[in-house]
Specification:
The complex is a heterodimer. By secondary structure, chain A is mainly alpha-helical. Chain A has one domain. In chain A, 70% of the residues lie in helices and 9% in strands. Chain B is mainly alpha-helical. Helix content of chain B is 73%, strand content 2%. Chain B has a two-stranded antiparallel sheet with strand order 1-2. In chain B, a hairpin with a 4-residue loop joins β1 and β2. In chain B, α14 runs parallel beside α16, α15 crosses α24 and α31 packs across α32. Chain B is elongated, with a radius of gyration of 36 Å. Classes of the chains: A mainly alpha, B mainly alpha. At the A-B interface, α2, α4 and α5 of A face α29, α32 and α33 of B.
């Protein structure tokens, strides 16, 4: 698995995958995609990078412990739900705001924030497991 | 009648918690003087409560209420009448002294701030308990006192005995609290939704008629008896003496253990008055009184002696509530106040002796009268009140309790004898603590004896003065405190009849007191013989309540262990077999029972060539898996099958599902490969023929079952109401064109929120498993499990499962529990998603 070709291509591949995962996440509300799939893609990217460059490298690049990222995701999702409190509407009620940037109209919403939370929760959890297993592999 | 709707009453029970929050900080700045600083809070509460005495003695009361759970009619409501006021005054007054005392007593202890915080938290809970009007609030405060008591008993948590005593107290009083909760809920239902203590007293007569009255009664009695250490739950209280002395003085004599008595008193108008009530209370109270009094004679540790007499006194209070006449209730209130004062005094003096000499064994102390003169005098005063000698308030307590039993029936005479015996024995204990350490020759002690400082001595001093003054001015005490309290316990108002007059010493009833004193004096001089006799008696028994309690706890643990071992044997194959047999049964049984086995399709459906080729691909994957020589090849082959399924999703217009399926397949294969390398498995799957037959049949049954289920689903028209709803509302209401995503993040966001929390929790569990794996065997099958959680079709579920089964031959300890809910969840969950897919297509 640890060939020169793989190691050379991996960083580029990982970068593309991460960008793609964000793209998938953001388009999710109207096109196929969403936080869950996006999170899975990003997690695969991290797993690939871990195999190619070593877990140590990945942990350094991530800055945060993956499980903390997962916790952050759940926190963000909860926060998205709690925002409705300020408008005196039930928990998790979707709130929408539209920004006009030039010709395009950008929709910001609590469901989007929620989906970002899902993204991080999935990404963090699976990356944590994958990295822990890979670490184990290396330590053998 | 309500005095005022003042919200500051609620603050009484909240202020101590705030103070507790600040206590460690204050301790950091002021050191051991923190006791003085923090005593401002209880002293303030005490001062705040004083002005209530007069209006409440005139029959008024205070009520206030904050919204809590208005949907269920539960409010955080408070209520001050005679009973709660007396208790609140005792709690805040004694609490003030205790906080000051602990500042000095635990000087130099590094956790003193924490200790003060616990004490204040306890005081807040206790105040809340006696002031609560709402029964749910009462329960919450009740349990809070159990928890804070646990923290305080276990304060010296490095000592095994402390930890054990703390757990014992928590189990017993907390368990009683659960009985209280059930009792409260039951009573609330029976009375048609009344939550307020101030209201239920009107329902006494109605409640007695109901068939469930005995059940409610028993539940409340269990709560009160456990809290107030009545036989057979009495044994936790002497063990609780492991706590530092201020705690023993405050919780385990003056206040918390009286919570049970408080509950009985509070419930007297509602539950009391019946034959069963008075017989139960009198008999359990009598046993407790005698048991505690006799056992007190056996002890030489002053704290143990006091603890046992506390048990006895609690029994006495319960007897008096059980008798229930005006005089008995008056006696109960006087005794309550008198006992709180002298017992707190005694405990604090015991603490001073311990602090000043280094021992609290009464046989090791003697001749301290010159070195600790103030303590000596104060101990004598406390003993006078305990013995019921005039002019202390204890005198009236004793007179009234005998007076209440001057009747010509057998029951009263027996109880009278019990009371005289109990009082005489308690008198002995009081006298020996007041006399033995101080008179006689000076004995060598671990520390050079010295008198307690102001912070230590102020408590017994004030309590002693109060015990004398309240006795001397008994008419005033009676009018202001005793009668209003007794009136709120009784169902009718009780007028004060307490006063000094010379003729009272000439009445025949005084003879009963004389008998008590004489008996006490006799026992006092024979104390050493009695003690020796009791010790030999105790040694003769192989069994006591403590041993019984331990046995019960260990049996519970053994039982739990047995159950766990039965279900969690750690053999993965068995887990898998159980899960999939259950799945097969769950799928097939309803079809057979309801006679709904679907008819098999008769003709081959017409499909396009690419649809056929995808099906062919899936079949190839399956066959490859079955004939695979090594496990790794089998896993990858199964991946082929998974991809084929994903392609089918794609073809039928479910890109989201297909997408997810692809990702899951990849990750499953990758992670399985990683896991495989860590499991000590053979490369090949060497199952014996019988196993192959067994596993194969189970797999077949599950597969057939799922297939039949799918066929029968297709045979009926699909209910499209939800689909139509989502399709119609997704864009206009939720502003999204991707219905699947809209459902996930908006329509059913709460589900998703729960699920990502589960994902994270599963992740943490897997990490833990990977990290703790000892000998390399405990590694993440769970890892794999948490992954394919959004498996979308039932067919897919089955294949994942059989995949898992293939690798699952090692004896790895994995949580079955994780497999099960997830299976259930995704089946439930996948329904609406799938339908939507159909709609989109």
């Amino acid at each position: 698995m640890n060939t020169v070709i793989f190691r050379t291509i991996a960083p580029i591949l990982v970068a593309i995958m991460v960008v793609f995962s964000v793209f998938i996440l953001l388009r999710g509300h109207n096109e196929p995609g969403g936080g869950f799939i996006g999170g899975l893609i990003a997690a695969s990217a991290i797993a690939i990078y871990g195999i190619a460059a070593g877990v140590e490298e990945v942990r350094k690049a991530l800055k945060f412990d993956p499980i903390a990222i997962a916790g952050f995701g759940v926190f963000i999702a909860g926060l998205a739900g709690l925002l409705s409190y300020f408008y005196q509407v039930p928990f998790l009620t979707g709130l929408w705001a539209y920004l006009d940037i030039g010709p395009s109209k950008v929709a910001l919403s609590t469901p989007l924030l929620f989906d970002i939370g899902v993204y991080f929760a999935v990404l963090g959890t699976i990356a944590a497991i994958a990295l822990a297993l890979e670490e184990d592999e290396e330590g053998k | 009648m309500a005095l005022s709707m003042d919200i500051s009453v609620a603050l009484i029970s909240i202020a101590p918690f705030l103070a507790a929050f600040l206590a460690p900080l204050i301790f950091r700045f002021t050191g051991h003087l923190a006791g003085w600083v923090l005593s401002i809070v209880p002293a303030g509460i005490f001062a705040y409560l004083i002005p209530f005495i007069k209006p409440i003695s005139e029959g008024k009361f205070v009520q206030t209420s904050l919204n809590w759970v208005p949907e269920y009619g539960i409010n955080l409501s408070f209520f001050i009448d005679g009973l709660s006021l007396t208790f609140a005054l005792l709690i805040s007054g004694i609490g003030t002294i205790i906080v000051i005392y602990s500042g000095k007593y635990l000087k130099g202890h590094h956790d003193q701030g924490k200790f003060l915080a616990y004490i204040l938290m306890f005081m807040g809970s206790m105040l809340g308990l006696v002031l609560a009007d709402n029964m749910v609030a009462l329960f919450v405060y009740w349990e809070l006192t159990a928890i804070t008591s646990f923290l305080l008993i276990g304060f010296n948590h490095k000592k095994q005995a402390s930890r054990r005593a703390a757990i014992q107290a928590l189990v017993i009083t907390g368990g009683g609290g659960l009985a209280l909760l059930v009792g409260i809920l039951l009573m609330q239902q029976m009375l048609g939704g009344v939550w307020e203590l101030s209201a239920i007293r009107e329902y006494g007569a109605a409640l007695h008629e109901m068939s469930l009255y005995p059940v409610v009664l028993v539940l409340f009695l269990i709560a009160a008896f456990t809290k107030s250490a009545q036989f057979p739950f009495h044994f936790w209280l002497p063990n609780a003496m492991e706590a530092p002395t201020p705690v023993s003085a405050f919780l385990h004599s003056a206040t918390m253990v009286k919570a049970g008595v408080y509950l009985l008193a509070r419930m007297n108008p509602t539950l009391g008055g019946s034959e069963i009530w008075s017989i139960t209370l009198i008999s359990f109270g009598s046993i407790t009184l005698l048991w505690g009094a006799v056992w007190a004679l056996k002890q030489t540790d002053m704290k143990q002696m006091l603890a046992q007499t506390t048990v006895a006194s609690l029994g006495l209070l319960v007897i008096l509530i059980g008798i229930g006449t005006d005089i008995a209730l008056t006696a109960m209130v006087i005794y309550l106040v008198a006992h709180a004062l002298y017992k707190a005094s005694f405990f604090l003096i015991a603490g001073i002796l311990d602090h000043g000499t280094g021992t609290r064994d009464i046989t090791e102390l003697g001749g301290l009268r010159r070195l600790m003169p103030l303590s000596f005098i104060l101990a004598i005063i406390a003993a006078i009140s305990m013995a019921g000698l005039p002019p202390a308030i204890g005198f009236f307590a004793k007179e009234e309790m005998y007076l209440s039993l001057l009747q010509n029936d057998l029951k009263s005479i027996i109880v009278l004898i019990v009371l005289i015996a109990g009082n005489a024995m308690m008198l002995v204990v009081g006298a020996s603590i007041a006399i033995k350490p101080f008179l006689g020759g000076l004995k060598p002690t671990p520390i050079k004896p010295h008198e307690g400082s102001l912070a230590l001595i102020i408590g017994p001093l004030l309590f002693g003065i109060l015990a004398l003054l309240s006795g001397i001015f008994i008419t005033y005490t009676g009018k202001m405190i005793i009668s209003p309290t007794a009136s709120s316990i009784s169902s009718i108002a009780i007028e004060n009849h307490l006063k000094w007059y010379f003729a009272m010493f000439l009445k025949p009833i005084i003879l009963l007191s004389v008998v008590t004193w004489a008996l006490g004096a006799l026992l006092f001089f024979k104390l050493d013989t009695i003690r020796k006799f009791l010790r030999s008696l105790d040694d003769g028994f192989k069994w006591n309540f403590d041993i019984g309690f331990d046995w019960l706890m260990f049996s519970l643990i053994r039982f739990a262990d047995m159950i766990t071992r039965f279900w969690h044997h750690g053999r993965l194959e068995l887990y898998m077999i159980v899960v999939f047999v259950a799945l097969g049964v769950a799928v097939i049984a309803p079809l057979i029972i309801n006679n709904a086995v679907p008819a098999m399709p008769t003709s081959i459906p017409s499909l396009t060539f690419y649809e056929w080729s995808v099906i062919l691909l899936a079949a190839v994957g399956l066959i490859a898996m079955l004939v695979a020589k090594t496990r790794l090849v089998a896993i990858v082959s199964l991946g082929i099958q998974g991809f084929a399924v994903a392609l089918i999703f794609m073809l039928f217009g479910a890109p989201d599902l297909a997408f997810t399926q692809f990702m899951v397949e990849i990750l499953t294969v990758v992670i399985l490969a990683l896991v495989m390398s860590r499991l000590y498995l053979d490369r090949r799957d060497n199952r014996i023929f019988e196993d192959i037959l067994r596993d194969g049949s189970i797999a077949l049954v599950c597969g057939v079952g799922i297939t039949m289920l799918l066929i029968s689903v297709v045979q009926y028209p699909i209910d499209l109401r939800l689909t139509d709803f989502f399709a119609a509302t997704s864009l206009p209401i939720a502003h999204g064109r991707n219905i699947v995503n809209v459902i996930l993040v908006d329509f059913r966001g709460l589900d998703t929120f729960g699920e990502i929390a589960v994902v994270m929790g599963a992740g943490i569990a897997v990490l833990a498993l990977i990290r703790i794996r000892s000998g390399g065997r405990q590694i993440g099958i769970g890892a794999k499990k948490s992954k394919p959680r959004r498996k979308s079709t039932r067919v897919q579920k089955a294949t994942t499962a059989s995949k898992a089964k293939n690798i699952a031959t090692s004896k790895t300890k994995v949580k079955v529990t994780k497999v099960k809910p997830k299976t259930v969840k995704s089946i439930r969950r996948s329904k609406p998603i799938q339908k939507n897919k159909g709609a989109k297509a």
